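Case study 2.
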Amino acid sequence: SATMTEAVDMDALRTALDVTVRRFPSIAVRLKTGFFWYYLEELSRAPEIVDEMHSPLIHMPIEDIRKCALRVLVHNNRIAVEFYHALTDGNGGLIFLKSLVAEYLERKYSIEIPATDGVLDREEEPTKEELTDSFLENSGDVSKSRAEENSYRLSGIPEKDGFINLTTFMIDSDELRAIAKSRGITVTAFLASALICAIVKIQNRQLPRRNQRPVKILLPVDLRRIYGSKTLRNFSLYITPGIDPRMGDWEFDEVCKSIHHQMGYGITKKEMTARMTKNVDSEKAFVLRIMPLFIKNIAMKMVYNAVGEKKACLDMSNLGVVNLPEIMKEYVERFDFIIGPLPETPYNCAVITYGGQVNISFVRNVQKPELELAFFEQLRDLGVHVKVESNQRS
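Prediction:
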């Protein structure tokens, strides 16, 4: 989402959306069902803009996804877009949002915004590279097994009405970068280490050490930077760095070193290619290709139930620093990024930086903010100054 300096002009936004969706034919789509596969069909017109709901990322029934697989929402000054993950990943979604906001600002304020910093020219035709399936293009000959030990899982009493709790930690980006640099690691590695330490404390309160599991988090990796891809389709994989508390007590600096080196080993072109090849080989398998869709659905559900959410406690997705053309900056005061909880994973975490502020957003579909409190205490103990806001109900 992007928060403007003034209330959103709905007429200008509707016109901007009409123009923008035609520029993104791989994102402005609906889900269709074939005999062998699902496929995506370009929308004939822009979706309706809706008022922001009582909480973000309200469940989208499959019937709605078959009409339109994205939502555009407005609340006062804020423009938000929610994407079905099959359409794109966080970076592709951010390009869509920035281009939509640029078109909106041009129409509302009669200004001209250059097509730079991830803003696309809405009058141009999409390029072949933007529509490319970069997984197929970059898979190799050697694949890597997905097998790994299961992680400790967070739990809690579910919200009865599907309410999604959102808590955002706001930190000065220069301060956070300096603290991470003092330990010789990136901001992502620092936040991942702090999050892992917070989860370890929760597990320690619940289980004796002999019954504990490793604590791992899922870190999505934007593959465009590694392969030089310009695709707007989903092109991300993940690694699952973590520690094993059964080995003994871990000092924070020990965790930082371990996570830093796990990320360094995992986020390489060879490692990512081997992981990618495993997925592509499965997709190309002859038996799977000729299997009717209803049987594929049963098989995929069985595999997902067996391994899908068991390898990590939660996602922590960092979109990094949002850059904008200079003329846009005076009209946009904030960006936020959130990812929804999964069926068996009550928490998820997303990070984005804009205008000197890092926003770390936790969502949860359980009642008690156990992880948020543990993470706040961990940051406080590390000397990080944090502001917190939440939509939690009283």
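The chain has 13 helices and 16 strands.
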